[in-house]
Amino acid sequence: MPDVYTLSFYTFAILTALSSVLVFIQRKLVHAVLALTMAFSMSAVLFLILNQTFVALLQLLVFVGGLSTYLMVSLANEEKGRRYIRVSFFIPIVIALSIWFAYFAQLSLHSEVVSGSSMDATFAVAIAQYYPLFYGIAALLFAVALGSVLFIKKFSKLVT
Amino acid sequence: MIMLLYVFALSLVLIGIAFAGLATDRHFIVIMLGIALILVASTIALVGFFDYNAVQNPGAIVMLISIWAVAAVEIITLMAFYVYMKYRGADFDVTKLSKMKW
Q1: pTM value?
Q2: Which of chain A's residues have a Cβ under 8 Å away from the Cβ of B50?
Q3: What is the fold, at CATH topology level, of the domain defined by B4-91?
Q4: Which of A13, A39, A90, A125 has its CA 20 to 30 A from that of A82?
């Protein structure tokens, strides 16, 4: 009889595979991106089952919180002029959720270092020396996202 | 403990689905989503290795984050390119993309 972890792994593995199939059979691009977001989220749960809390949190922050949102907003605005999302309403929610996730990640890192239960203290210290690199990556992502938005804005003005 | 074989099987299934999608769909954005799916599959395989070795290697995680950052930058740039092409009225069928400059 398989234990709870194995059963959860099977369940989320099947859900990940199903949502991956959905990416290619959707007719609308926005729905395909939603299916991909679901695949990202399910794989984050798989990472949690495989004892990789840090990678799971990063997956949620970078892919579900950042990239999928960017894709959704871009495609929803572009696809045949039909508005799926009210952007002015959506952006504050995304920012609030991202801050909440970042706070949760920091809290869990600190608590595990203190208790020394699931995450090794040496691992947390070793990760801490790469923080400047993380800030560099965040700055790079921000610069590219901002640059692309400015580019699109400038170019749409030129055409219309 | 979940066997490494199952994690690899899932990773291979995801890569298979992504390749099937890449082979059958010719839309620019769908191809981009398929490549993102391959990235997820490779990450699952890597995490399977982490779990199998039961060692949290900071260097490997930093490498993983760097790869993610590059992939994210690539997708953002491709989205800007998509919008550019849309405004220029280009066809999104990749087999019809013959121009590098409009």
Answers
A1: 0.70
A2: 50-52, 55
A3: Helix Hairpins (1.10.287)
A4: A39
